[in-house]
């Protein structure tokens, strides 16, 4: 950050740039009177609630005019953005000292858990600050801090937070917190004081200078190291296509350049159309993951490569068709007796294909390929028109059939991949013909997540982190969707799936088990405890409810492997799940827990228990760091019970020698550096240390506010030196790009879930 304007460490050019930036932003929100009123200030500050906006506005308005001028704004921002620790601390104290500089007859209304707590501050604006913070003031401010961070806690929990912070800060037990006491308490958080600001006012800061690298990221050594298998594969793929094109074109160059181009593209199409089938052999690819080939080939990217090859096929087909049309046009001009349309629409012996139908089958193929590509785009698949994608993609059967009729040599390329593809489809069909599986239990979570407990088929074996394709005819007859198995393989009787409602099919699934149209279907919670209230586990009761589950069959296809299969053969694994992206790691963490239970030893004399080393030929893990990032509080309900059990298994291990460490982040919560949250985060820290339990999740692990600082997180991992680090991620593509860049910087291998 730049120093304050006019300081000796800030050049005149920097001073002018800062003033220009703030003035420009000020002009974008100011009214016609060249002043900012309270409503404009709230809009610009982008605060969720009005309490802090009013407190900041009152403190910014130095002359008490009810509006903020450019001069007042510059003075306040100079303090907040560039001021020293003492300046920021005094401002923070004034924010918390609610009975200080307040408007007359202002009411502070705190709504928490649908209970309105109203406190009237009947103080004149000329009334001087009391110079201290009493418990009622602290409670009001912490209540608004909770709302700003989108945290919902019971009213009695707010009282516990207030008491914990007040007892820690009130050093002399006088019943109030003075400025000196607050400063002394905050001295234990030097990094907070140094960076203390109002995060929502970042729009008023000058933009940071862009970081420029001496060379593009794609040319760095770290990038090539982390993507070596993919880049080698792409290089080999491009080289093979170039070789096939060159050899075929050279063989036909004497028949004309357009025909040479057409033959070259045709040979490449023979290979690529057969290769498309290879990339969709999910069972074969899952088997290959258990072989040394998995270390060489980028099997995790097979879906991405399938899409890439699809684009290549369409491009080659267009060039192939265009070259043939150009050649036919040349022949039509030379012949003079036949028009171009006759070459294209009439079967002619010697042209190629079965019965000379190469032209006709080629045009049909071009249309089918274009339709498949158009309707497989994300805007179609994710906009409630999945059936369009499904049925148009089934035309691959027609495409391969026409290719055999169109190209005389295609069958040679397609024989082996085609047989394997048919075999996989037959195996899947056998699974389906064996009968539907019974859905044994349905848990509807308030965060729009459907937890299905499905009867596990006999001889169904899978690895932690694997996924299946699920079909529920009652939801959609022909739709199959991939979902990660969230239960451990050691759980013999059932399969667990956690399905978040994001699209048409998943929303229909959630609504189906709610069944509002069935008045006789009763749903009752299994438990009324506080934790179970957040995670409403529903049990189907009554005749109609039992019939609903009994009549709801599902079919599965799988299991199929994912990159997470590498976790157990890693040395130091970092598992990062964003939201529902925790599901593959839930299975893995449960499997680890089962292994702990199997290897747990106990002394018969003193009853001291310990766990043997988990490493064996199937598991070389030395350390696991689990990071779970959620947007808000309610999404932690998905696997809190599982994580609680894991913590209990780890409780006897020393902190420095723990095999598993968990890190929770809540992105909607404001960080400790924000003036609107520092008190709350300090109170949460103090109460967690006192009770050995986090107030947000109930876990021993403290939930951190905001987003992870990946440089610090990975820096700490690198310092531990517990072996080669591999990072496994499941979540949004945008976050994957950020984590991938940091992995390249630290030299970590990065793996991402791909469906």
UniProtKB/TrEMBL annotation:
PROSITE patterns, A to Z: EF_HAND_1, EF_HAND_2, FAD_FR
Family matches, as Pfam families: EF-hand_5 (PF13202), EF-hand_6 (PF13405), FAD_binding_8 (PF08022), Ferric_reduct (PF01794), NAD_binding_6 (PF08030)
Span of domain FAD-binding FR-type: 429-566
Source taxon at top rank: Eukaryota
SUPFAM superfamilies hit by this protein: EF-hand, Ferredoxin reductase-like, C-terminal NADP-linked domain, Riboflavin synthase domain-like
InterPro entries recorded: EF-hand-dom_pair, EF_Hand_1_Ca_BS, EF_hand_dom, FAD-bd_8, FAD-bd_FR_type, Fe3_Rdtase_TM_dom, Fe_red_NAD-bd_6, FNR_nucleotide-bd
Residue stretches making up the EF-hand domain: 48-83, 164-192
Topology term for the membrane: Multi-pass membrane protein
GO BP annotations listed: defense response; superoxide anion generation
GO cellular component annotations of the record: NADPH oxidase complex
Transmembrane intervals: 231-254, 260-282, 303-323, 358-376, 388-407, 413-431, 573-596
MF terms (GO), sorted A to Z: calcium ion binding; superoxide-generating NAD(P)H oxidase activity
Keywords, ordered alphabetically: Calcium, FAD, Flavoprotein, Membrane, Metal-binding, NADP, Oxidoreductase, Transmembrane, Transmembrane helix
Protein's UniProt name: NOX5 oxidase
Species name: Circaetus pectoralis
Gene transcribed to yield this protein: Nox5
């Amino acid at each position: 950050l730049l120093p304050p304007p006019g300081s000796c460490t800030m050049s005149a050019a920097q001073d002018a740039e800062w003033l220009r930036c703030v003035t420009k932003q000020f002009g974008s929100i100011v009214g016609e009177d060249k002043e900012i009123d309270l409503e404009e200030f709230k809009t610009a500050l982008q605060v969720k609630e009005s309490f802090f906006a009013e407190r900041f506005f009152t403190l910014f308005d130095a002359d008490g005019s009810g509006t903020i001028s450019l001069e007042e704004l510059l003075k306040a921002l100079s303090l907040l953005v560039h001021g020293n620790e003492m300046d920021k601390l005094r401002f923070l104290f004034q924010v918390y000292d609610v009975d200080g500089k307040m408007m007359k007859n202002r009411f502070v209304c705190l709504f928490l858990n649908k209970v309105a707590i109203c406190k009237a501050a009947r103080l004149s604006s000329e009334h001087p600050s009391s110079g201290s913070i009493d418990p009622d003031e602290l409670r009001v401010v912490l209540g608004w801090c909770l709302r700003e961070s989108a945290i919902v806690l019971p009213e009695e929990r707010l009282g516990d937070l207030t008491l914990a912070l007040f007892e820690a800060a009130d050093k002399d037990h006088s019943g109030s917190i003075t400025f000196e006491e607050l400063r002394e308490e905050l001295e234990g958080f030097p990094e907070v004081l140094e960076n203390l600001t109002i995060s929502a006012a970042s729009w008023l800061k000058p933009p940071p200078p862009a970081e420029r690298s001496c060379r593009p990221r794609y040319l760095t050594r770290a990038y090539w190291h982390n993507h070596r298998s993919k880049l080698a594969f792409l290089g080999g793929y491009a080289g093979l296509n170039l070789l096939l094109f060159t050899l075929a074109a050279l063989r036909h160059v004497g028949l004309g350049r357009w025909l040479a181009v057409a033959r070259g593209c045709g040979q490449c199409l023979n290979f690529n159309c057969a290769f498309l089938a290879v990339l969709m052999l999910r069972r074969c690819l899952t088997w290959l993951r258990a072989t040394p080939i998995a270390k060489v080939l980028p099997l995790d990217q097979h879906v991405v490569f399938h899409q890439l090859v699809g684009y290549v096929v369409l491009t080659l087909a267009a060039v192939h068709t265009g070259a043939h049309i150009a050649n036919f046009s040349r022949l039509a001009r030379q012949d003079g007796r036949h028009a171009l349309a006759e070459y294209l629409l009439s079967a002619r012996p010697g042209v190629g294909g079965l019965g000379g139908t190469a032209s006709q089958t080629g045009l049909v193929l071009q249309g089918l390929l274009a339709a498949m590509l158009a309707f497989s785009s994300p805007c179609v698949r994710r906009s409630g028109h999945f059936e369009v994608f499904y049925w148009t993609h089934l035309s691959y059967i027609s495409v391969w059939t026409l290719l055999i009729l169109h190209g005389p040599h295609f069958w040679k390329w397609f024989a082996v991949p085609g047989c394997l593809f048919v075999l996989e489809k037959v195996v899947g069909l056998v699974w389906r013909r064996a009968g539907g599986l019974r859905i044994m239990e349905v848990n509807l979570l308030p965060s729009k997540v459907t937890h299905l407990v499905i009867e596990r088929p006999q001889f169904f074996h899978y690895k932690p982190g694997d996924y299946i394709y699920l079909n529920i005819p009652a939801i959609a007859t022909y739709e199959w969707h991939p979902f990660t198995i969230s239960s451990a393989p050691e759980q013999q009787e059932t399969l667990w799936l956690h399905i978040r409602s994001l699209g048409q099919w998943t929303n229909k699934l959630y609504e189906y088990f709610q069944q509002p149209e069935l008045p006789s279907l009763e749903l009752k919670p299994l438990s009324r405890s506080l934790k179970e209230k957040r995670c409403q586990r529903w049990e189907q009761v009554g005749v109609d409810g039992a019939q609903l589950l009994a009549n709801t069959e599902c079919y599965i296809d799988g299991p199929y492997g994912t990159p997470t299969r590498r976790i157990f053969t890693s040395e130091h694994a970092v598992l990062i799940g964003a939201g529902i992206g925790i599901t593959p790691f839930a299975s893995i963490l449960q499997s680890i827990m089962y292994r702990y239970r199997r290897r747990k030893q106990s002394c018969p004399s003193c009853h001291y228990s310990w766990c043997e080393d988990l490493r064996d030929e199937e598991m070389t893990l030395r350390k696991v760091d689990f990071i779970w990032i959620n947007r808000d509080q309610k999404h932690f309900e998905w696997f809190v019970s599982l994580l609680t059990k894991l913590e209990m298994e780890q409780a006897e291990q020393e902190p420095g020698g723990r095999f598993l460490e968990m890190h929770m982040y809540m992105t909607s919560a404001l960080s400790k550096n924000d003036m609107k949250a520092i008190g709350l985060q300090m109170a949460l820290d103090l109460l967690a240390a006192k009770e050995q339990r986090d107030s947000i999740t109930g876990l021993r692990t403290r939930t951190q506010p905001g987003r992870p600082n990946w440089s610090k997180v990975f820096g700490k991992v690198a310092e531990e030196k517990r072996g080669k680090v591999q990072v496994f991620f499941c979540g949004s593509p945008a976050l994957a790009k950020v984590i991938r860049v940091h992995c390249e910087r630290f030299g970590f291998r990065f793996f991402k879930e791909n469906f």
